[in-house]
Amino acid sequence: TAERQLRAYVLPNTAQRIISRGVARVGVDRGVSKVVVTLKNSGQTPAYDCVAFLGVGVFEIGKATALIPPQDMPISQSVLAAGEKIELGGEMRALTQEEEVGIAGAIQEIHVYGKVTYRDAFDIQRSTEFNMFCTGEWLTSGRFASSQDGTKAT
Q1: What is the pLDDT of residues 6-52, one digit of tens each?
Q2: CA atoms of 26 and 36, how far apart (whole Å)
């Protein structure tokens, strides 16, 4: 239908973990790092009243089931034009030596997760939940991939 073709679709585009001293490297992650998720409106019309949250956690492989919004989180509201991208980001605590070894060995994983809600051009409330993970060799590059729970959009 025309509505499906024209409506806003706000989805995660990329996710990256960045160490304040440069690219993440196993064995030297003792400083502040941050996680940045880029959301993109892949639709043909704006997404209005966009509100999003982002959370980060370290979990054993397959145990990241309780992904809940962080407490006392600042919330912003914006309009996202068709084709436009926005970044969600925040500081992430330094990994412990045990976590580094577990993540590099694919026993644990870093999850970055969140939700964005918005109103489309047809005045319908929409939302997208996302859950992405970083484990194994991705730890050194800081890259994330969509988890099995993946992205759910309405």
Answers
A1: 999 999 999 999 876 544 555 544 556 889 999 999 999 999 999 99
A2: 19
Q: What number of other Cβ atoms are within 10 A of residue 102's Cβ?
A: 20
* Sole residue written with tokens 């997208």: 128
Q: Cα-flanking dihedrals φ and ψ of residue 34, to 5°?
A: -135, 160
Q: How many angstroms from the chain centroid is the CA of residue 5?
A: 25
Amino acid identity of 36? Answer: V
Structure tokens at 121: 């051009």
Which segments of 20-76 are extended strands (E)?
33-41, 47-60
* Bridge partner list, 89: 36
Please give the span between the terminal C-alpha atoms of the chain, in angstroms, as a whole number. Answer: 16
User: Where would I find the beta strands (DSSP E) of the chain?
Assistant: 10-19, 33-41, 47-60, 77-80, 85-92, 108-119, 125-134, 145-146, 152-153
d(CA 90, CA 70): 11
pLDDT of residue 44: 96
pLDDT at 60 over 50: yes
If DSSP codes are grouped into helix, strand and coil, which group holds residue 9? coil
Residue of higher predicted confidence among 107 and 150: 107
